[in-house]
Design brief:
The model has no long low-confidence stretch (mean pLDDT 89). The protein is mainly alpha-helical and 150 residues long. It contains five helices and two strands.
Length: 150
């Protein structure tokens, strides 16, 4: 007959191993997703560049924190021009933002000046983020084996 302490120790080790495996899978998913967004955004910038409008001054970077459990992708710095390229200005911004969720519109509004701009946007970041987000949530649900809150 097994001693009670031995059974509890075995279950504890199994749970810890299970937790470590789940965390490892999530860490990989976060890193892969952030990297994918960065690559897709860079490709969109390259595709959208023209001789008249070179977008090579926009550098999309990723940042992984919290041991790989949190990731960010974005344009680092304080220059607002990358946001104007992303969202457009004036009526172009209205058109581009029409299908985005409210939280993206709220970000775009931080760059609002007077609504009279004429820069036609060339989305590169948020459109790709939203694509990868859907895949991320699906894979996270598979890893956790249950519904994930968006």
């Amino acid at each position: 007959m097994a001693r009670r302490g031995a059974i509890i120790n075995t279950v504890g080790r199994d749970l810890e191993r299970y937790r470590n495996d789940i965390v490892k899978q999530i860490r990989k998913l976060v890193i892969d997703s952030v990297t994918r967004i960065e690559i897709m955004a860079a490709r969109s910038l390259t595709r959208n560049s023209t001789p008249e409008l070179s977008l090579n001054f926009i550098v999309v970077q990723n940042k992984i924190t919290k041991g790989g459990l949190q990731g960010e992708v974005g344009v680092m710095g304080s220059d607002p021009l990358p946001a104007y390229i992303e969202f457009g200005t004036g009526l172009f911004a209205v058109d581009i933002l029409s299908n985005y969720p409210q939280w993206v519109k709220d970000i775009a509004m931080k760059f609002y000046v007077n609504g009279m701009g004429t820069l036609q946007g060339k989305p590169y970041l948020y459109n790709n983020f939203l694509i990868v987000k859907i895949e991320f949530e699906k894979k996270l649900k598979e890893i956790l084996g249950k519904d994930v809150i968006s």
